[in-house]
Amino acid sequence: MTYSEKFTDGQPCWMDISTPDSAKRIALAEFLTALFGWKFEVGGPESGNYSTAFSNGRDVAGLMEMPGIPSYWTTYLHTGDIRSSTDAFVSHGGKVLTRPMQIFEMGHMAVCQDAVGAVVGLWQPIKFEGFGSHDEENSPTWFDQQSEDPKLAAACYRDVFGLSVASTPGSDDATLGSPEQKWFSVSHQPDAMPPSWNPVIQVDSLSRVTDDVSRLGGEILMNDMAVPGGKILVFNDPIVHAPLICFEVASTSNAT
């Protein structure tokens, strides 16, 4: 997945995570810095100490403090008309969890639940477009929405944003985006797991990340799983125990 300077409706443009308090926000930032080399810029009290992560000087993610809210990574999709998009989610089987609100001079945000129950954010930019780094080591490279009904999920996002859907042969899974380029996938969620959006971070080595996660107290959930173009690792961080996926691009050193 690649990005232009501006995003298209329905394209993932940001990711962030809530933490219950300042101590856990700081500890999670330290963990992510140790793992990915991210640097953090902390906003003032008026922003709730919202912390923006940078990879090589470019925005990649956010951390915030929200007591009483479960900690998980939220994926935000770009929209040029946030009120129209929230209305469309309701019209296509979803719910509005957080009504559109302006975030300073940065943009407008909302949070919805889609037709299969996964929580997703919406972002209409003013001054802040979203990711500044992508498809590079220690930056987001893909997004996967998982549920028990990928076909219904695909139909929901197709209808809300007018996206193109490419079905996976022999499966209900699919990828969505523009006709020329796909931005995210919908896939079948493992049994007993709630529907969710899952950001994927590209890394230099899954072996290194596995060792670092274990050394830093995290929990490895899945390792060295083959996927198109490479392999993935899934782990829970040791601070708020939120799952995150890492992706290592397949080596071409042995290609002929």
Task: Throw out a few tags for this protein.
single chain; 256 residues; alpha+beta; 2,3-Dihydroxybiphenyl 1,2-Dioxygenase, domain 1; eight-stranded mixed sheet; 4 helices; 16 strands; 27 kDa antigen Cfp30B; Glyas_Bleomycin-R_OHBP_Dase
**Runs with pLDDT <50, length 5+?**
none
The gross shape turns out to be: globular
Sheet/helix structural class: alpha+beta
Our count of helices gives: 4
Report the major sheet.
8 strands, mixed
Distance from N terminus to C terminus (CA atoms, Å) equals 25 Å
Q: Supply the CATH superfamily name of the domain at 12-125.
A: 2,3-Dihydroxybiphenyl 1,2-Dioxygenase, domain 1
Please indicate the percent range of residues in DSSP E strands (runs of 2 or more). Answer: 35-45%
Per DSSP E runs of 2 or more residues, the count of β-strands stands at 16
Q: Share of helix among residues? A: 10-25%
As laid out across the biggest beta sheet, the strand order is 2-3-4-1-5-8-7-6
What is the CATH topology of the domain at 12-125?
2,3-Dihydroxybiphenyl 1,2-Dioxygenase, domain 1
Write the element-wise H/E pattern from the N-terminal end onward. Answer: EHEEEEHEEEEHEEEEHEEE
- CATH top level assignment of the domain at 12-125: Alpha Beta
**Mean of residue pLDDT?**
94
Computed Rg: 17 Å
Protein name: 27 kDa antigen Cfp30B
InterPro entries: Anthracycline_SecMetBiosynth, Glyas_Bleomycin-R_OHBP_Dase
Organism: mine drainage metagenome
